[in-house]
């Protein structure tokens, strides 16, 4: 209110010709001060929420990002009884520091390894170490747990003793992996998330075909999302057009049919699709009853990719219809009529006149549906079987089942990067302010 | 004044509510979870007044590992497979259990002699012997019912979907046995790359027809819904559906894989003393025998054997349904816990890549 | 959408075909939601229409699955249904406990999201707001970032701060997820907000507080309430974060459904689904009425 007074205060012309307010201050300065105050006031209204979102959203995501480049499992152990942090593999890390990558491990290296294994066995940290190296070189966890059992009784020469326990220790890849795992900052998990690994010389190479899975899943996620986006467009366009051209009284009623799914629980909609599509479900029953298929050959429409596509298309359809509708509604029908009167066929009029005007809606809806689809978790998990799983399901798998949290974080960060890129694009092309909900 | 009084009373009420003793036990849910509630939890609450909260998980070994590693442990006692118990213990994620807390058998046998060999380890006290078997819906194969583990992989003679647990364990062993490998050679073969390849090659034969399950309660449901014609399952779950709910399910013990399963305490459990008390109580002779009334898993104490009689319906003899019954052991494999404690991570990794590809 | 009089026969056929296609798409949208309603009254444990149901035989229908919602998890479901039976159901029935948790979490998450979100929307819609676009993008991002990523981040963060397995942790997470909806709906009502109204109030001697409560608040209230309903529904439907950060005994309705679908999908799930559909119809109606009221208040033509 004071701002209003300040801004509206009667001005007087001072002797030097500058405009001032009643109390003699230059008008320009007063105005600037008032504006700064307004700015601050607006900002202070936003601050509480901004702080809240920083704490409950940005910080956790930042922590996750740091998890993806930092894994201390090889070099430090937290004693859960005392809460102390105990360093692991101290001698071996010393040896790595003194010797160049690729150095042939000598007796000193093997002695350091034997001591490290025995120590880790003693404090029950060996499983953690083995699991960490197993992330880099598959099939080595048992190498660590097995050899460590014998490590305590080993005597020099250690190289012989260790190779005697298991000759796989001669594999330079294992030594490269241990060297890499003893650093605080690592990109190993990003390599793993892209189906890459380091060979013995530290070069980045593809992993064995039979273990490569993440790129395939990223690809599948993007391909399925694109397909789902296309399906929502194909289904959403006609009804958005219908809604936009009907008189408001009718279209408001039909709009309810679009909005109701929007307001209905995701789990309810997923359940419904299970009920409809399972082999003893309503759709198969209908087809058997109508004689299209016989009882023995019921179609498998769920717990596979088809199930994921159908259910997600249904769930995301309103996100396509609403932006399309808001772009189509204001399109003046007289343009199409004019085209027709100039001799265009109805198809030409649609293609050359109407369609180009709906492009912003298609872009907005398409981007929104695609962004939401790439991150979907619940629906593919419930109806996707094994072939309909998306990258989110794999992140959940590493979070909850395999407990390879660093890899989960790396995968999540890559997905996050892709989504943020699309979000930025959305903001540039559509503007977040134009996001509408019903 | 009056207001403060009410408020204080309410606060005290809250405090009392919070301090009332509770114990959280995580297990596998479904029919097995119910057998534990009936045989262990309820009697324990009756005797001590301590409320037992049952929590279900697909496989409790993973959530408790996650809890200990993340440092927020809410579970006091967990029921895990023997191999997982050994592995988690090696990794320092479990509390050690002093065997002297375990009471002697009801017939006076000292506790350590009463338990089956190896059943009590540093961190785990075995409660049951369970088995992974396969079962089929008898209405699907009226004429020539499947009877061997090879039949499970034979899609030509026995068409229809198959249910398998989503994981490497048990599937690889079954695949090799179905491929003609003798049970005693299975683990030797799985130690080699060729053996693992062979197992996956066998699984490849049915991969397209497989519906994967994760929770133990799912397989009987898949059979009942007609989603699969045959499925692997834990034997007790099929028994409960077949005998307890009159479903037309038949268990095939040929090629079964039996294993111990027992209680562990995650490191940093909020109620360590209560947890120890609970485990000692639950693995007493009577409680173990009582559990066998609810589900067809063999008790881990020898002294419980003679006390096992009829199923809770009062007419079904439990003996022949136990995985350890002589008839059922003709072609059976004892799950090798050392193998799985060491190789679980590696083989599951391979399994997942195989599944996604 | 009337057909012009100059339409050719082919165009006429296409027009009717188009209407049929649209009808089919609407069917695709709505049928899966409504199908669960009759099926939830199935007397048999199947997910399809039995012959008795199709012939409208009353014995083909029953309330048994709704009954199961009450009795599942009770200590003594067989007891006569007197006061103590209901007390047992209230204290122990799994679905009732899940509903209680969902309502508690949803309520507080909504309050938090609505309060903070409305405040921020007021700031964001001021023309003087600095870094408006960036801040808006940050505040909307919880809606865009895949839930699995948010849940993963929260798992690590809550584990290290002791917020894991607490109600406060879930409430804060759900509030974050609801905030974008509040911001979007409230800023939408503030678009075209006539600022001369507040200036008029000020010039008539009202202090800022009075102006806010007498002028601004009534005008944006419909938007605030819609936003609050959106925030509530978001929390009420959220399961991923709950799966990651909640304790195992902190069940909510969606989490209970998730377990039910994965393990043993019984028609009891359908009766829950039916109840949720009824709730969503009620919420949608409320929001629609609010929107119209708001448009009337602001003098914007409906649309």
Could you walk me through the main structural features you see in this protein, from its secondary elements to its overall organization?
Chain C: Pfam families: BPD_transp_1. The complex is a heterotrimer of chains A (438), B (357) and C (303). The N terminus of chain A is likely disordered. In chain A, helix 4 crosses helix 6, helix 5 packs antiparallel against helix 6 and helix 10 packs antiparallel against helix 11. Chain A has 19 helices and six strands. Helix content of chain A is 66%, strand content 4%. With 438 residues, chain A is mainly alpha-helical. With 357 residues, chain B is of the alpha/beta class. Chain B folds into two domains: 170 residues, Periplasmic binding protein-like II (D-Maltodextrin-Binding Protein, domain 2), CATH 3.40.190; 162 residues, 3-Layer(aba) Sandwich (D-Maltodextrin-Binding Protein, domain 2), CATH 3.40.190.10. In chain B, strands 1, 2, 3, 4, 5, 6, 7, 8, 9 and 10 form a ten-stranded mixed beta sheet that branches. In chain B, helix 2 runs antiparallel to helix 13. Chain B starts with a helix and ends with a helix. With 303 residues, chain C is mostly helical. Chain C has a domain of 168 residues: MetI-like fold, CATH 1.10.3720. Helices cover 74% and strands 0% of the residues of chain C. Chain C has 13 helices and no strands. The model of chain C has no long low-confidence stretch (mean pLDDT 88). The chains are: A mainly alpha (438), B alpha/beta (357), C mainly alpha (303). Chains in contact: A-B, A-C, B-C.
């Amino acid at each position: 209110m004071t701002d209003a007074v300040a801004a509206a205060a009667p001005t007087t012309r001072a002797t030097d010709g500058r405009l001032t307010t009643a109390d003699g201050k230059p008008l320009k300065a007063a105005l600037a001060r008032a504006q700064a105050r307004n700015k601050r006031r607006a900002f202070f209204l936003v601050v509480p929420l901004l702080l809240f979102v920083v704490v409950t959203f940005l910080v956790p995501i930042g922590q996750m990002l740091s998890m993806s480049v930092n894994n201390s499992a090889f070099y430090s152990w937290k004693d859960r009884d005392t809460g102390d942090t105990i360093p692991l593999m101290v001698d071996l890390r010393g040896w790595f520091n003194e010797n160049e990558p690729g150095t042939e491990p000598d007796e000193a290296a093997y002695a350091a390894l034997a001591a490290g294994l025995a120590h880790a066995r003693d404090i029950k940290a060996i499983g953690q170490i083995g699991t960490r190296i197993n992330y880099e070189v598959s099939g080595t966890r048992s190498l660590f747990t097995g050899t460590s059992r014998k490590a305590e009784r080993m005597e020099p020469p250690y190289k012989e003793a260790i190779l005697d326990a298991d000759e796989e220790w001669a594999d330079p890849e294992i030594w490269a992996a241990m060297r890499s795992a003893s650093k605080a900052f690592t990109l190993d998990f990003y390599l793993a998330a892209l189906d890459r690994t380091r060979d013995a010389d530290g070069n980045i190479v593809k992993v064995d075909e039979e273990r490569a899975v993440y790129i395939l899943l990223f690809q599948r996620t993007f391909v399925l999302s694109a397909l789902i986006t296309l399906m929502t467009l194909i289904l959403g366009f006609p009804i958005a057009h219908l809604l936009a051209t009907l008189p408001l009284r009718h279209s408001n009623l039909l709009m309810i049919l679009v909005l109701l799914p929007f307001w209905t629980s995701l789990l309810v909609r997923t359940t419904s699709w299970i009920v409809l599509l399972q082999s003893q479900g309503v759709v198969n029953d209908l087809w058997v009853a109508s004689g299209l298929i016989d009882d023995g050959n019921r179609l498998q429409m769920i717990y596979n990719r088809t199930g994921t596509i159908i259910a997600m298309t249904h769930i995301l359809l309103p996100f396509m219809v609403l932006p399309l509708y808001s772009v189509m509604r204001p399109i003046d029908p007289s343009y199409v009529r004019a085209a027709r009167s100039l001799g265009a066929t109805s198809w030409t009029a649609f293609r050359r006149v109407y369609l180009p005007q709906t492009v912003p809606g298609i872009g907005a809806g398409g981007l929104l549906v695609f962004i939401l689809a790439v991150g979907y978790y619940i629906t593919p998990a419930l109806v996707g079987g094994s072939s309909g799983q998306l990258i989110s399901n794999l992140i959940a798998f590493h979070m909850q089942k395999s407990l390879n949290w660093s890899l989960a974080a790396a995968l999540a960060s890559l997905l996050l990067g892709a989504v943020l890129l699309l979000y930025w694009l959305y903001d540039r092309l559509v503007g977040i302010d134009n996001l509408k909900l019903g | 004044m009056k207001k403060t009084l009410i408020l204080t009373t309410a606060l005290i009420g809250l405090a009392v509510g919070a301090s009332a003793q509770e114990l959280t036990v995580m297990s596998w849910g479904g029919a097995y979870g119910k057998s534990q509630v009936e045989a262990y939890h309820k009697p324990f609450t009756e005797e001590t007044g301590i409320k037992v909260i049952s929590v279900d998980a697909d496989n409790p070994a993973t959530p408790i590992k996650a809890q200990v590693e993340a440092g927020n442990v809410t579970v006091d006692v967990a029921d895990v497979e023997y191999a997982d118990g050994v592995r988690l213990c090696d990794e320092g994620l479990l509390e050690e259990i002093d065997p002297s807390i375990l009471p002697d058998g009801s017939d006076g046998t000292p506790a350590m002699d009463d338990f089956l060999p190896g059943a009590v380890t540093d961190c785990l006290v075995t409660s049951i012997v369970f088995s992974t078997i396969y079962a089929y819906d008898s209405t699907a194969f009226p004429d020539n019912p499947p009877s061997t583990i090879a039949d499970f992989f034979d899609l030509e003679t026995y068409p229809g979907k198959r249910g398998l647990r989503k994981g490497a364990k048990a599937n690889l062993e079954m695949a090799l046995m179905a491929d003609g490998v003798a049970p005693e050679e299975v683990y030797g073969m799985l130690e080699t790359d060729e053996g693992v390849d062979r197992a996956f090659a066998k699984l490849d034969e049915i991969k397209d027809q497989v519906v994967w399950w994760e929770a133990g309660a799912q397989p009987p449901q898949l059979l009942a819904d007609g989603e699969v014609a045959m499925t692997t399952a834990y034997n007790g779950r099929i028994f409960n559906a077949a005998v307890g709910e009159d479903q037309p399910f038949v268990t095939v013990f040929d090629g079964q894989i039996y294993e111990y399963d027992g209680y562990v305490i995650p490191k940093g459990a909020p109620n360590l003393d209560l947890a120890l008390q609970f485990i000692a109580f639950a693995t007493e002779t009577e409680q173990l025998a009582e559990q066998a009334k609810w589900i067809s898993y063999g008790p881990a104490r020898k002294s419980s054997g003679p006390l096992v009689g009829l199923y809770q319906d009062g007419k079904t003899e439990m003996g022949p349904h136990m995985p350890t019954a002589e008839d059922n052991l003709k072609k059976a494999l004892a799950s090798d816990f050392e193998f799985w404690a060491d190789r679980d991570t590696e083989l599951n990794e391979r399994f997942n890549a195989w599944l996604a590809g | 959408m009337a057909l012009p009089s100059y339409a050719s026969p082919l165009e006429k056929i296409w027009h009717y075909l188009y209407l049929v296609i649209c009808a089919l798409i609407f069917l695709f949208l709505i049928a899966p939601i409504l199908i669960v309603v009759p099926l939830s009254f199935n007397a048999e444990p199947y997910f399809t229409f039995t012959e008795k149901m199709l012939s409208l035989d009353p014995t083909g229908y029953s309330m048994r699955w709704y009954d199961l919602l009450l009795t599942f998890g009770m200590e003594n479901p067989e007891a006569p249904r007197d006061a103590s039976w209901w007390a047992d159901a209230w204290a122990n029935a799994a679905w009732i406990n899940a509903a209680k948790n969902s309502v508690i979490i949803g309520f507080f998450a909504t309050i938090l999201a609505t309060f903070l979100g409305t405040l921020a929307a007021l700031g964001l819609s001021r023309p003087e707001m600095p870094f408006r676009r960036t801040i808006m993008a940050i505040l909307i991002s919880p809606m865009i970032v895949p839930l699995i990523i948010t849940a993963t981040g929260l798992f690590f963060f809550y584990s290290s701060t002791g917020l894991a397995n607490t109600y406060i942790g879930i409430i804060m997470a759900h509030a974050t997820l609801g905030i974008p909806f509040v911001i979007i709906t409230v800023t939408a009502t503030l678009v075209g907000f006539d600022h001369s109204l507040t200036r008029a109030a000020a010039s008539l001697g009202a202090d800022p507080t009075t102006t806010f409560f007498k002028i601004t608040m009534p005008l944006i209230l419909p938007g605030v309430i819609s936003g609050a309903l959106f925030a509530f529904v978001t929390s009420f439907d959220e399961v991923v974060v709950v799966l990651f950060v909640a304790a195992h005994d902190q069940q909510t309705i969606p989490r209970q459904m998730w377990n039910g679908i994965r393990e043993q999908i019984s028609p009891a799930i359908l009766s829950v689904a039916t109840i949720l559909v009824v709730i969503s119809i009620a919420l949608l109606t409320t929001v629609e009425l609010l929107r119209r009221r708001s448009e009337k208040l602001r003098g914007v033509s409906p649309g």
